[in-house]
């Protein structure tokens, strides 16, 4: 977390405590189960696939998918820019082309790519916000699907079109699709941050409600024991 993010959260927490102002809509209020994608990956012989997504601060996104059945690893990192700029201090400046992203390794026999996107759009973030999530502002917090291949890109485009046509959100989906962008793992202190810091104010306000929503809305997909980087590796 940057110093500015800490200052912003601390100031607004004080405001809430003093005057009872609700600064941001809570994730618990805005989360919903949306329809599953009509277009999804066909079952195959693979036992492991990778998906890379970005939806604001990577702490919460990583935390959500670590609790998804069928996910074997979820790693916080950077995607969209080059290797030289894949550094938290640089990415936080918003000029590296990177987004805070999460690389999800999953077993396609247990969960499909489309199902991962359904969770992404339902509880992991607000896909209608452009270059921001909550108090975090800048292109490094953009909503993006980093497609690994043409099939993933096709599924993602079809799903975004499906959701926009259904008008399930208050605005059009701002999520972009980027191809052929490598992923770089973030610094070790960012990994498993939600699990290791459950009382940190930012986590309490923005991220723990996402886990609660996953458990509430995706009962058959939620698992209590997270797939931590400290156990699965990067």
Summarize the structure.
The chain is of the alpha+beta class.
Please write out the topology.
Layout (H helix, E strand, L loop, with lengths): L2 H17 L7 H4 L18 E7 L2 H9 L4 E9 L8 H4 L7 E8 L6 H12 L7 E2 L2 E2 L5 E5 L2 H17 L9 E4 L3 E3 L7 H4 L4 H17 L11 H4 L2
Parallel strand pairs: 6-7
Antiparallel strand pairs: 1-3, 1-6, 2-3, 2-8, 4-5
Poorly predicted segments: 6-28
Classified by CATH, the class is: Alpha Beta
What strand order characterises the main sheet?
A: 7-6-1-3-2-8
CATH topology: Peptide Methionine Sulfoxide Reductase, Chain A
Number of strands: 8
Structural class: alpha+beta
Task: Determine Rg (CA atoms, Å).
Answer: 17 Å
Work out the helicity level. Answer: 25-40%
Number of domains: 1
Structure description:
This protein has 234 residues and is an alpha+beta fold. The chain has a single domain, classed as Peptide methionine sulphoxide reductase MsrA (Peptide Methionine Sulfoxide Reductase, Chain A, 2-Layer Sandwich), CATH 3.30.1060.10. Helix content is 38%, strand content 17%. The strands form 2 sheets. The chain has a 6-stranded mixed beta sheet with strand order 7-6-1-3-2-8. It has a two-stranded antiparallel sheet with strand order 4-5. The longest helix is centred in the N-terminal third of the chain and has 17 residues, at 3-19. The radius of gyration is 17 Å and the shape is globular. Residues 6-28 have low confidence and may be disordered.
